[in-house]
Amino acid sequence: MSLENTPSEVREDKSMRHTTAQIEKDRRVLELLSQTFGTISAASSEIINLEAILNLPKGTEHFVADLHGEDEAFRHILKNASGNIKRKVREIYGNDMRDSDLAQFCSLIYYPEQKLELIRTEEEDLDDFYNITLHRLVKVLQSVSSKYTRSKVRKALPKEYAYIIEELLHEAPSGESKQMYYNRIVETIISTGQADDFIIAICNVIQRLSIDRLHILGDIYDRGQGAHIIMDTLSEYQGFDIQWGNHDALWMGAAAGNDCCIANVLRIAMRYGNMDTVEEGYGINLLPLATFAMDTYGDDPCEVFLPKPEAGCTIYNDRSLALLAKMHKSISIIQFKLEGQMIDKHPEWHMEKRKLFGALSADRKEITLGGKTYPMRDSNFPTVDPADPYRLTEDEQTLVDKLHRSFVISDKLRRHMNIMLNHGDIYTVANSNLMFHASVPLNSDGTLREIEVLGKKMKGEELLQSIGMLMRAAFNNDTPAEIRDYATDYYWYLWCGPESPLFDKEAMTTFERYFIEDKSTHDEPKGFYYLLREREEVVDSILDAFGVTGDHRHIINGHVPVKVGKGEQPVKANGKLMVIDGGFAKAYHNTTGIAGYTLVYHSRGFVLVQHEPFSSTEEAIRLGTDIVSTTQLVELSQNRVRVRDTDKGIELQEQIDELRELLFAYRNGLIKPR
Asked: How distant, in Å, are the alpha carbons of 18, 31, 663 from that of 22?
């Protein structure tokens, strides 16, 4: 007999037997679930709650990449939600406020403590200002919180003011009595001297709810002055993830005790005249390096090693610049020696061509590469022994040991690396978006390239997963010593290795950039991923390999700055791939023509926000200036994306299914209510 011809009461019985069998299979899970939802009414209420959440618009996700220590610009785009807060304010008050007043009001939302301090010295009628401002802020908060449950909004509120703000937020005036109630709350806030605190609290909640999830696609570190400040900011932030970049891997390797990484970190800091993160941020003692530099290169002008002009090193006088250049040269020569030792230690990495001391002429005034001879810009190498060029002198080894200890004992550096490990990975898939910093290694035909790691050849998702586990192994005390040592070494390969998915270029031509004038030697040919990522079929094959599904799926990455000024576009492969490295670092502004991107994914679709250089936090507070941003609509959804359409929605639906199963068990006596 077919099921379609079975009487209804028999069909119900068969369904019940099937469900009963499922209950027995899931009993352990359901018993645990019953500890939280112990009655039929409790389970039913939670189902109603979750079903309602599924129909809310999805929260707004922000994607940024290659921050490179630009803490002021980064914190500002968090505060203004990449211009989204100003857009909301303009929607609500565009016809009621002049542009100048609107800019000052937005400045208050971004920097409430500092702005209020300024207003108190200028405003003649503070009570009137407080009254108007509190009413306006509540309207903005109502707008940005409309896509969230009351529970989520409540969790974002400071406990001491949560009840009052909720009353203001959810009890909008709808009659004379209600209006009097509402106005009286505001008047009492002012009369009790709590207006400043309430304004600050509401502004902070507006900022927080304007970004539901923050994705950082690598390279928080190097070049700019404030990578440690960015990490401090993230330590107090909720709802973010990091996809590690090669500059992040460099710092992680330094924290793990990789001397090649330590030397590179210090060299880059000096190349860009940025000592704040190293010295003030992490307390690295550079006095031994300064002493060594003066002793070794005291009579050497080290002109090649002066900080890069585009770094804008205006804080140094001539004397300090001269010392910085000597320190820069000292650590660079040490770096090249350490790297030569690392290459010899790991012949499986096939990086012998990067040992360039051996290509120098006897007088060190020329170097021969690829059969062509070039003059050297600097030939003074007093610590390099021609017979054994990669051996550290006794003084160099002593210095390396001191620097090593300074990095591995830095408590703050270790805390920040724990944030990297706890919130980060080499790649992430979220809501049909595959995110990574640089590349997925490819062959010339667009197929996934096999890379050998620890004697095993892997490609695609397996490769990235294995590298991610290896990176964690360097910080895991339970890892066997041999694996941990290799994992620590591997951080340097991730930084500059030709088959590293965080780099994926033929070579990092650091030596050539310092010592050879001919720029043709500075080229760093990119891997096939960069050459083929314009092709939609290649992007589709990568997404398939990582199991990314959905009608609107994408790859999002950074690493290589988009040269907007030269007509390059960040959106590729018919909209399926987005490169969001627009040059946050000041050193890149001339190259890219802009100052960074934010990709915003809200319930209506994707918007790419292109930023102009940020003046300063001080000007934003005093004058109400903002980052000038332009938006480009990348992809618009015909139907508004709901929570049920997201990864979170899948999780919630699974919880609903389990709760419905628990309800069945309660109602049929298979599990007893508590």
From this structure: 6, 13, 13
State residue 263's pLDDT score. 98
CB atoms under 10 Å from CB of 100, counted, come to 10
pLDDT tens by residue, 337-374: 999 999 999 999 999 999 999 999 999 999 999 999 99
Judge whether 405 and 395 are in contact, CB under 8 Å: no
End-to-end alpha carbon distance in the chain: 41
Q: What tokens does 198 get?
A: 């309430």
Cα dihedral sign, 545-551-557-562: positive
d(CA 225, CA 275): 7
Q: Which amino acid is at 193?
A: G
Quote the CA–CA distance of 476 and 42 in Å, as a whole number. Answer: 42
- The continuous run of DSSP H or E covering 556 comes out as strand 554-557
Distance CA 619, CA 574 (A): 40
Which tokens belong to 194?
């709590």
Q: Cα torsion for 465, 470, 475, 479, to the nearest 10°?
A: 120
Question: What count of other Cβ atoms lies within 10 Å of the Cβ of residue 43?
Answer: 23
Contact 524, 507 (CB under 8 A): yes
Question: Which tokens belong to 669?
Answer: 């006596």
Sequence letter at residue 582: G
Cα separation of 378 and 373, whole Å? 15
Q: How far apart are CA 536 and CA 534, in angstroms?
A: 6
**pLDDT value for 154:** 87
pLDDT the model gives residue 551: 86
The pLDDT tens digits of the residues spanning 180-190 come to: 888 888 899 99
Residue of 58, 145, 61 lying closest to 641 (CA atoms): 58
- In angstroms and rounded to an integer, the radius of gyration of the C-alpha atoms of the chain is 29
Contacts of 179 (CB under 8 A, 6+ apart): 173
How many angstroms separate the CA atoms of 380 and 515, rounded? Answer: 11
Say whether 420 sits in a helix, a strand or coil: helix
Ordered strands of the 213-216 beta sheet:
424-425, 240-243, 213-216, 61-64, 597-602, 605-611, 629-636
Please answer whether residues 444 and 525 qualify as being in contact, where contact means their C-beta atoms are separated by less than 8 angstroms. no
> How far is it, in rounded angstroms, from Cα 612 to Cα 629?
6
Q: DSSP assignment, residue 497? A: -
Regions of the chain where pLDDT drops below 50: 1-15
Tokens of residue 90, six digits: 């303009």
DSSP classification of residue 152: H
Within 8 A by CB and 6+ apart from 278, the residues are: 265, 266, 269, 284, 286
Sign for the pseudo-dihedral over CA of 321, 325, 328, 330: negative
- Residue-wise pLDDT tens digits, 89-103: 999 998 889 989 999
Place of tokens 């990709």: 599
The span from the CA of 465 to the CA of 425, in Å, is 9
Burial of 258 (0-12, 13-18, 19+ CB in 10 A): buried
Q: Residue 369's beta-bridge partner residues?
A: 372
Dihedral angle of Cα 451, 455, 461, 464, to the nearest 10 degrees: -80
**How much is the pLDDT for 2?**
38
Strand locations in 547-622, DSSP E?
Answer: 554-557, 571-572, 577-579, 597-602, 605-611
Whether the Cβ atoms of residue 262 and residue 108 lie closer than 8 Å to each other: no
Q: How far apart are CA 662 and CA 649, in angstroms?
A: 20
**Which long-range contacts does 229-234 make (Cβ < 8 Å, 24+ apart)?**
229/71, 229/75, 229/281, 230/67, 230/69, 230/71, 230/74, 230/75, 231/416, 231/419, 233/71, 233/74, 233/75, 233/78, 234/419, 234/423
Q: Give the separation between CA 595 and CA 229, rounded to whole angstroms.
A: 19
Tokens, residue 196: 């400043």
Amino acid 560: pLDDT: 77
Question: Global pTM?
Answer: 0.90
